[in-house]
Amino acid sequence: MTTDIEHLAHADAHPTGRMDEIVSLCKRRGFVFQSSEIYGGVQSVYDYGPLGVELKNNLRDAWWRAMVREHEEIVGVDAGILMHPEVWVTSGHVSTFSDPLVECQNCHRRFRADEFPELEAGGDGDASKAQCPVCGVKGQFTDPRQFNLMFKTYMGPVEDEGAVTYLRPETAQGAYVNFKNVLDSTRVKVPFGIAQVGKAFRNEITPGNFIFRTREFEQMEMQYFVEPGTDEAWFETWRERRRAWLTGIGLRGPRLRVHEHPEDKLAHYAKRAIDFEYLFPHGWAELEGVHNRTDYDLSRHQEASGKKMEYVDASTNTRFVPYVIETAIGLNRLLLAVLADAYHEEEVEGETRTVLRLHPSLAPTSVAVFPLVKKDGMPEMAERIAADLRRVLPVFYDESGSIGRRYRRQDEAGTPFCVTVDGQSIDDGTVTVRDRDTLEQDRVPARALRTILAERLAGPDA
Ligand code: ATP
């Protein structure tokens, strides 16, 4: 339930793409494929195709640039997916990282109990009214039982209890266990941050909505270590910085809102938490969280490992265990939001065109280069231009089919600029540059293309 909706006023005129349209575009154009499709697919696991991997890389790079490169006091780590199993006992994940699971005794499908208000623990709902969304039978759910979301596996050749370890369910712990290493090996001073991007795994009871909720996903998290007492102000700062970044990469403001977690729903480690929710094709849902995790994780690791997790402030000669403000976003979920936001269908000259209005710096291909026709020296000149641009930009060269169809294919891929070599190009060395969004074409000297495109492709300024 949303308690604090900072709903940014007026609705945006253009809706996002529908989920079926996005899924279909993703497959048709090579953004996202179902995993192991030739074997019938694996439920809720997805593979990223040629365009998808580029878009994902560009989003990850944009995040890293904004969170690490542009901050003197934020550094990165890349911790292992497998960690010491004690980490997950200490963090509380072994005992509490679970969802309540119910099973329909008629069709034997399983669900999260919290998806049914009638089954809410302590609520006044009537369990006999809870209806199975698959078979429609009412009142046949089992009592909820806690289901741990961590994937268990074994380290080494012997599959016994002593060899149990877990695939990490969040990247944050990799930053906490390296807190001392980072302090001792760099010159950072509180306040400072540790950022990390990497895979996380959760055995979700009900994954779904395409790449929104999957069992394997990638997180981009940053842990900002601050002096206790300054945590509330830093929380506000990071919330505003993250909002600016999300809109800076192109997400439309009216499609973002803030949900404040009520105190009784806070995670065991949190003093305060907000979600940035995005209006996904399936409705409002969490995109990114900003959390005040207090000194919970560092203190627990200090206690369990016996290693000091204190920071010594040399200027005041004080020691303290820092508080942590965390920003946490799923890369795959962000990619879905960005695709949904960018997806447009519109009428152009009596035809419907599908266009992805991606921020130019995020587009998988920056520029497509075409000869107008396959003769009169045009392919040779276009190939020379493509080869030159390829040294600095992702370029796609295409000479087959009508020019109109080639433009439409690039619109669907979100390519912001198409350069065309025509008859005049051979005479005077100029080419046309077509803008994906305005459909305007201007004529520029081919030798100035690198400079002109670099200007037009300038990155998000968040
Ligand atoms: P949710 O309430 O959606 O389960 P959460 O509150 O458990 O998410 P966090 O633990 O705060 O999520 O993780 C940070 C971010 O990681 C989320 O905001 C989301 O973008 C992403 N994320 C979490 N679980 C998944 C998942 N199963 N699939 C894809 N992304 C996920």
Describe the structure.
Helix content is 29%, strand content 27%. It contains 13 helices and 23 strands. It has helices spanning 19-29, 50-69, 85-90, 93-96, 172-177, 179-185, 231-248, 296-305, 331-342, 378-390, 403-413, 423-428, 449-456; strands spanning 32-34, 46-48, 74-76, 98-103, 110-112, 145-148, 151-154, 164-167, 192-201, 216-226, 256-260, 272-280, 283-294, 311-313, 318-320, 323-330, 343-348, 351-356, 367-371, 395-397, 417-421, 430-435, 441-445. The strands form 7 sheets. The chain has a 7-stranded mixed sheet with strand order 3-9-10-16-13-12-11. It has a 5-stranded mixed sheet with strand order 20-19-21-22-23, sandwiched between helices. The protein is globular, with a radius of gyration of 25 Å. The two termini are 30 Å apart. The site of adenosine-5'-triphosphate has 16 residues, from β10, β13, β16 and α9. Adenosine-5'-triphosphate binds at residues 170, 202, 204, 213-214, 217, 219, 286-289, 328-330, 332-333.
So what's the overall shape?
globular
* Averaged pLDDT: 92
Helix proportion: 25-40%
Q: Characterize the main sheet.
A: 7 strands, mixed
How would you classify the helix and strand content by structural class?
alpha+beta
Task: Please tell me how large the radius of gyration is.
Answer: 25 Å
Spatial separation of the terminal alpha carbons: 30 Å
The low-pLDDT segments are 1-13
* Ligand roster: adenosine-5'-triphosphate
Number of strands: 23
The oligomerization state is single chain
Tally of helical runs = 13
How is the largest sheet built, in terms of strand order?
3-9-10-16-13-12-11
What portion of the residues fall into strands of 2 or more residues?
25-35%
